[in-house]
Amino acid sequence: MAAFLTGIAEEAQRRGYHFDTSKIAGPKLDSQMEETKGQLLYEWAHLRTKLQARAPEVYRLYLKVKTPKAHPLFRIIPGNIREWERT
């Protein structure tokens, strides 16, 4: 959780927001978790569908993004959608 929140804090700072990192407890992750490109693209399509219905203005901002940048917690590897995913 600390590694995830650290990435969120870095993005908040990049956007000009203040994120109190002193509240992030625990050690930082020294490595990344592997995830497949297929899973990343599946999740991106799922999010875009939700945005189109719930936040059309945000959806339009990301229309040209075909492959999003993964959270720093993940290292993207070749592969399809995970077998455990409900499609």
Fold and architecture overview:
The protein has three helices and two strands, in the order αβααβ. The chain has 87 residues and is mainly α. It folds into two domains: 1-30, no CATH class; 31-87, no CATH class. It has a two-stranded parallel sheet. The radius of gyration is 15 Å and the shape is globular. The model has no long low-confidence stretch (mean pLDDT 91).
Q: Largest sheet, if any?
A: 2 strands, parallel
Query: Which strand order do you get reading across the main beta sheet?
Result: 1-2
Beta-strand content:
5-15%
Mean pLDDT: 91
Instruction: List low-pLDDT spans.
Output: none
Would you report the number of β strands? 2
What integer value in Å does the Rg equal? Answer: 15 Å
Instruction: Please bin the fraction of helical residues.
Output: 40-55%
| Number of DSSP helical runs | 3
- What is the element string, with H for helices and E for strands? HEHHE
Structural class: mainly alpha
Distance between the termini: 27 Å
Domains, number? 2
Overall, the morphology is: globular
